[in-house]
TrEMBL record:
It comes from Candidatus Methanofastidiosum methylothiophilum. The keyword Transferase applies. Its cofactor is [4Fe-4S] cluster. It holds the Pfam family Radical_SAM_N2. The keyword Transit peptide does not apply. CDD domains: Radical_SAM (cd01335). GO terms for molecular function: 4 iron, 4 sulfur cluster binding; metal ion binding; transferase activity. This is Ribosomal protein S12 methylthiotransferase RimO. The gene is rimO. SUPFAM superfamilies: Radical SAM enzymes. GO terms for cellular component: ribosome. Residues 195-408 form the Radical SAM core domain. Keywords: 4Fe-4S, Iron, Iron-sulfur, Metal-binding, Ribonucleoprotein, Ribosomal protein, S-adenosyl-L-methionine, Transferase.
Length: 468
């Protein structure tokens, strides 16, 4: 297989860091947060950073081994990343427990640090919240130290950093930045390695969300809504063109601005194909759909109409159908995202969902996918329980009434639930399992819960120490 990337930074520096995405290249290289860190560290004098993925055990840039880097920066976006992080350290003969590690600084960042306490005994430093400025401040301090691992206190004054050895009890405020900086070097694959967004430049148009759906981390905990102007977006693209090569642009953001149509118009005028990973119902109009020219448009009805209103996503079924009829004129299919098991959901709600999908299929080719509801910390639904037997019943009901739908594996979702609402006890359990090559599965974790070895949700709710 040919590996051809444009936008790769190959730099020699005294301070060499590893940037590790604990998943495969396909997922990781399509993560914008990773590109932020890659650009910020590489643009600092005397520093370089090289990428690792689970299918690339040596660095992409220099094919070097992970243990040869001074600091290991992990990007944590999904719960499975926690288990993968532990396995990666073990595989590279790097001590998992912080107290046993002499040489390497292990640093984590990303949205999963909304609850960093599962890995409390592992990392030296966790970046909490937006890191574009705290990372620069960290590098400043780092460059003045002889032995950063032993002089960890020196980082204690940087806002947005959680350092377990220093911050024993106090609260840590999530750092929030305005949208100013944007990475320009995005390594983009032109060879045979797939990415989630192929040959695509990721352009962050907004951050945060103006809605507050009660199940959603973004709306409740990841900071207020911020947006970039059209002028800024165009200038980022023009600068990026000088540094990397792409033929599409994906607009990244959970909530789109009122001028979305103009942005798409300007960017298509530059000759790019534009994609939007997901669109809110109100953003769908004749103009946007025509300009996008996407074969498939993704919508997220989430649940039945009444549950949808209860969780704060206030769209009626008929509004969805108006848009599906519009989409039909310009695109070939719709993808519908659902969450099942939300509080208050009854079988009549599942019947409504089934009816909705069947009705949509009469209008346009419809793919549907279901994820079980996994409570997230810092959301109004954080105290909800992942009721495995009930969810299993509901899953069976859905699959017996609907053909060709994708339903996420419940056992895997249970593992995510444990990590999402866990505390240090979960981390120590996982460390022991990885160290001793024990299985981490639905049954091992539920047995550990029964025996009282781990407590889910953690009654201490240590994540409340993170101020959002
Ligand atoms: S589910 Fe979507 S609309 Fe609702 S808060 Fe989250 S990002 Fe916003």
């Amino acid at each position: 297989m040919r590996f051809i990337e444009y936008g790769t930074i190959k730099k020699k520096a005294i301070n060499r860091f590893a940037l590790i995405y604990p998943d495969f290249y396909k997922a990781g290289n399509s993560n914008l947060g990773l590109h932020y860190v890659y650009n910020i560290v590489n643009q600092k004098e005397n520093f370089s950073i090289e990428r690792f993925f689970m299918d690339f055990e040596r660095s992409i840039e220099n094919q070097d081994m992970m243990k040869n880097y001074k600091a290991l920066l992990f990007s944590l976006n999904y719960e499975y990343g926690v288990i993968n992080l532990l396995r990666i350290l073990k595989r590279n003969n790097i001590s998992i427990l912080r107290e046993k590690r002499d040489n390497h600084l292990v640093i984590t960042g990303g949205p999963l640090n909304i609850n960093p306490f599962v890995l409390n005994d592992v990392f030296d430093i966790a970046f909490i919240g937006d890191a574009e400025k705290s990372l620069i401040e960290f590098l400043e301090v780092y460059s003045g130290l002889d032995n950063p691992k032993k002089q960890i206190d020196e980082f204690g004054k940087i806002k947005g950093l959680y350092i377990p050895e220093i911050h024993k009890e106090n609260k840590i405020k999530r750092r929030i930045e305005n949208l100013e900086y944007h990475p320009l070097y995005e390594p983009i694959q032109w060879g045979d390695f797939e990415e989630s967004f192929n040959k695509t430049f990721l352009l962050e148009i907004t951050r945060g969300c103006r809605s507050r759906c009660s199940f959603c981390l973004t709306g409740n905990a990841l900071g207020p809504y911020r947006e970039r102007s059209i002028e800024e977006l165009l200038s980022i693209v023009k600068e990026a063109e000088k540094r990397t090569k792409f033929e599409k642009i994906a607009l990244i953001g959970s909530d789109m601005p009122s001028y979305l149509g103009d942005v798409i118009f300007e960017l298509t005028n530059l000759g790019y194909q534009i994609s939007l990973p997901s669109l809110k119902l109100r953003d769908i109009n004749e103009n946007t759909i025509t300009l996008l020219g996407q074969d498939t448009i993704t919508l997220a009805p989430e649940s039945s109409e009444s549950i949808r209103f209860q969780v704060g996503k206030c769209y009626k079924d008929e509004e969805f159908f108006e848009k599906i009829n519009l989409i039909k004129k310009h695109s070939k299919s719709v993808k519908l995202y659902y969450i099942f098991g939300l509080p208050g959901e009854e079988y009549k709600d599942l019947d409504e969902i089934i009816k909705f999908i069947k009705q949509s299929r009469k209008i346009i080719r419809t793919k549907s996918s279901f994820n079980p509801f996994i409570p997230k910390p810092h959301t109004p639904l954080e105290d909800q329980i992942f009721d495995y037997p009930l969810l299993k019943e509901k899953m069976k009901y859905l699959s017996s009434n609907l053909k060709d739908v994708r339903i996420e594996d419940l056992k895997g979702a249970f593992i995510q639930y444990v990590i999402s609402l866990g505390g240090r006890d979960v981390g120590l359990y996982l460390i022991d399992a990885v160290e001793n090559e024990k299985n981490i599965s639905y049954s091992s974790l539920s047995k550990a819960m029964e025996k009282g070895e781990i407590e889910i949700p953690s009654s201490k709710k240590e994540w409340k120490r993170i101020e959002v």
